[in-house]
Write a structure and sequence with these properties.
single chain; 175 residues; mainly beta; eight-stranded antiparallel barrel; 11% helix
């Protein structure tokens, strides 16, 4: 659904709500219990990032977010897939991850499944992450637990990353 259609839908919802409030009898007590609506926003788009650890790594990927809009404690869930590359060490990485945020100003908690390759040897692993998201920026830190190998691969284990998510598609669902 486009932004124009979403704005029109929200505007109509507000107009109907105001019209309903205008029909109330002043002697009757009003209750919000019947007006609870479940509003979900789905957003997705590309992200660009920089990861710093022992090595500098650049990231590029796609993220999809599901946000449940509520007055108190909204929740956001996201799924992302990204490619990262260490230009100095020649290591290519793939990350598939998930994170969750409960509330407006709380931390994000999640994890990534990782694959690292130097085009000769491969390592797979898991990275628990904690972060903070504000606007389109997402700052995360974590530790990558990779499979053991006899060969050295220049890849980050402990890292901090900053990503900018360019959310260019939105879908509002009101139930």
């Amino acid at each position: 659904m486009s932004m124009r259609k979403s704005s029109a839908l929200i505007g109509c919802f507000l107009l109907v709500t105001l019209w309903t409030f205008g029909q109330l009898n002043e002697k009757k007590k009003f209750s919000f219990k019947g007006l609870k609506k479940d509003v979900t926003v789905k957003k997705y788009g590309p992200y660009f990032g920089y990861q710093k650890g022992k090595y500098d790594v650049y990231e590029l990927g796609m993220e999809k977010q599901w946000k449940r809009i509520k007055l108190s404690k909204p929740s956001t869930n996201a799924l992302h897939f990204g490619i990262n590359y260490n230009f100095v060490g020649g290591v290519l990485g793939y990350d598939l991850g998930y994170w969750h945020k409960k509330g407006r100003l709380n931390f994000t908690y999640g994890g990534n499944l990782c694959l690292r390759t130097d085009f000769t040897h491969n390592k797979v692993g898991f990275a628990p992450v904690i972060g903070y998201k504000i606007w389109q920026f997402h700052l995360q830190t974590g530790y990558v637990f990779l499979t053991k190998s006899n060969t050295f691969m220049p890849t980050n284990t402990f890292f901090i990353s900053l990503c900018f998510v360019l959310l260019n598609h939105r879908d509002v669902d009101v139930k």
